[in-house]
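We both want to read discrete structure tokens more fluently, so let's practise on a single case. Once you have written the record down, we can walk along the chain together.
***
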Amino acid sequence: MTDELLALPLRRCLLVTDWPGPDRAAWATAHRRGSLLDEDGGAADWAPVTSNLIAAGYGRFLSFLVQTGDLHLGESPATRISRARVESYVTELRRIGNHSSTVAARLLQLVRAAAVMAPGADWAWLRRIQARLKRMATPARDDRARLLPVEKLFDLAILLMQRAETTTDMPGHRRALLYRDGLIIAVLCAWAPRARNIAETVIDISMQRRGTAWWAAFKADGTKNKRPFEVPLPNEFTVWIERYLDQYRPWLVQRSTMPVAGDAFWISDGGRPLTAKGIGELVSRTTRRELGQSLNAHLFRKAIPTELAIRDPEHVGIAQPLLGHADYRTTQQAYNLARALDAARRYNSLIQSIRDEEGKI
């Protein structure tokens, strides 16, 4: 390890530009597109958000090695990622208070980085460690306590749009924000896109008018599982979407002195295309303000299969294509909180009925 790395500002995750030469080279090769004679690198098809996440995870491992004085610049990733170092890394993550789910996630990031940076190495041992950590991990937050019925969320969406339409003493751009927020929540209730897909929605491309209905349509390179995705929105959305495009979106676009919105469907208060982060923040802020409980956009993806399992269990399988999952096990294992949630609701109803009966005595 050289004095240059020691002199770098201490970072939680070492930036790619600060990685040792062999690691930077392996990362670049993993992302390289092949020619007629050469295959693509293992990370060539990764979305930018995935690549950044895995890079941060590997950078976290390198940062640990810097802090422990164990980063040797000439080593290749295949040699650098050793069993002894990984075990020490896990011990340190636990020692400084990382939640078990965070530790498991950090190891998964390391596994994925190792697989594409040193594809010829045998990483079975590393995968076994990660699998064991995953089995031991507990959720950092109990999503069951945070979920709300989809019906209640959809009612909120309609209420916000109605408020925008009827509150005449409010500035135009504030009404536009209300309407936009209501429409976003309505879309989340209808098919629960990922925040990234909402941010990437483009008029007439990923949001298209087809006959009397509007369709969400994303090409394979715009989805997480690299499969094209198309879904029609309910007919009642047609009026809402066209009202937004005709009146409220233009008000928001004019908030910028420069024409920067382009054909982006969702516009920020500053007249710019909304980012995935901005969408997540506005959904959390709006649900906390209106319902007293903050929900992020991703929770809507859990609410849909949960509600289906409770109200229409025979058709719960439709949640898989609606959420764009390649494997139903993803829908079932990661998103279906129905059994515990239904039990809690039934129990609460029982307690309320007992209280009602006692009140009659």
About this structure: The first strand starts at residue 207 and ends at 210. The chain has 16 helices and three strands. Residues 144-345 form a domain with the hpI Integrase; Chain A fold (CATH 1.10.443.10).
